TrEMBL record:
Protein name (database record): DNA methyltransferase
GO molecular function: methyltransferase activity
Organism: Acetobacter oeni
UniProtKB keywords: Methyltransferase, Transferase
NCBIfam families from the UniProt entry: 16S rRNA (guanine(966)-N(2))-methyltransferase RsmD
Listed CDD domains: AdoMet_MTases
Lineage: Bacteria, Pseudomonadati, Pseudomonadota, Alphaproteobacteria, Acetobacterales
GO biological process per UniProt: rRNA methylation
Origin superkingdom: Bacteria
Length: 178
């Protein structure tokens, strides 16, 4: 069980939603084990790190986590240590909206921002501009159930509702964020 800070500021992705997401990634016609295993992952708005840790446990090569909340950072670091995955990860205590330049682009990007604030499109633009998103990368965004698609003009590969959450999946285009 992952540590999570007290209060409602951090909203870890529910176990059943994570399971459904990874089942979809591994078994969808556009997915497969190759979209996770051996791939560099980015977990933006990481919170407890649940999505990135799940990817690492399923064979991802490395995960970069972005988080700004101090309590969430403490939980994330404790979870990395508890899962014995510190050597497979890098934690940036900063905003995914202002990332430093990437050393290597990621093939799978998870964004689980606070709902209803329009953050996914801004984060994707910032990450793309800083070289974090590889062309053809899978982008997975969690929004509130009632929110519109987080970006326009992309072919949504999958859209699933799980309780209060809606998952969106698409492949990055030539400019990465689209």
């Amino acid at each position: 069980m992952l540590e999570a800070p007290e209060g409602s500021a951090t909203r870890p992705t529910a176990d059943r939603v994570r399971q459904a997401l990874f089942d979809m990634l591994f078994h969808a016609p556009w997915g497969g084990r190759d979209c996770v295993e051996g791939v560099r992952i980015l977990d933006g708005f990481a919170g407890t790190g649940a999505l990135g840790l799940e990817a690492l446990s399923r064979g991802a090569a490395f995960c970069t986590f972005f988080e700004v909340d101090r309590a969430a950072l403490g939980a994330l670091r404790a979870n990395l240590a508890g899962c014995r995955m510190r050597e497979m990860a890098q934690v940036f205590a900063g905003s995914v909206l202002r990332p430093k330049r990437a050393v290597e682009a990621c093939g799978l990007v998870f964004l689980d921002p606070p709902y209803g604030e329009g953050l996914p499109a801004r984060a994707l633009a910032a990450l793309s501009g800083a070289g974090w998103i590889a062309p053809g990368a899978l982008i997975v965004v969690e929004t509130g159930r009632e929110e519109a698609a987080p970006v326009e003009n992309v072919e949504i590969l999958a859209e699933r509702v799980h309780g209060a959450a809606r998952l969106w999946v698409w492949r990055a285009g030539g400019d990465a964020a689209e």
